[in-house]
Amino acid sequence: LMRPLRGWRGRGIVVRTVALCLAAGWALQTPGGVSLVVPQPNINATVAQNILLSVEYSCRGVATIEWKHVSTWGTTKIVEWKSGNYVNISTVYKDRVTTFENGSIQLLNVGMRDAGYYFITVTEEHGTSTYGTIIVNVYEIIYEDLHFVAVIFVLLAAVSAILVCFMWLCNKSLHLFQKKMTHKLTASTTEEIELETIEC
């Protein structure tokens, strides 16, 4: 039978111990990574509205934030910035994007082409990255529908006014009829009394 040498066994234990210590030291020195929260992953907006793509990130080091827009028209880089450093906004989005320290961006005066997927990438200086996605739906305000609703509203108001006038006329006619009948009854009663007086 072959037996392992005592020297090799001792060296193996030492190597494993050193490797374990190095791994523990590396783990302690490595930052805790990046965390990203997207509170509203779906946004519905109408044309010409301002929308906030809200996120919240945290990391130990300095982070680089990048936003991209993906739609049927292609992929467009919106903005990239480093915490407390530079802000690089794409020419297409100049004067339409506002950046915030927590990684959020505000998009002004949205149009139909702004619908699609918005991807955020947060990368810390040690190379650790995390990702988030927000879906934006943009709807047009159809003025024809509003015009139709306005016309229906006017028609209903006109019909209501006609009904009110008709009810007022009916009430007035009924009142006049009752007054006339009362007058006739009074006249008839007076005539009967006069006849009775004459007969007596």
TrEMBL record:
Signal peptide limits: 1-27
Domain of life from the UniProt record: Eukaryota
Segments passing through the bilayer: 146-170
Cellular component aspect of the GO annotation: axon; dendrite; plasma membrane
Domain Immunoglobulin, first and last residues per copy: 40-139
KW Signal (keyword) present: yes
Primary localization class, coarse: membrane
Keyword vocabulary terms for this entry: Glycoprotein, Membrane, Signal, Transmembrane, Transmembrane helix
Statement: the UniProt record of this protein carries the keyword Membrane: yes
One of the GO biological process terms: positive regulation of excitatory synapse assembly
Locations listed in the record: Membrane
Record's protein name: VSTM5 protein
Originating organism: Amazona guildingii
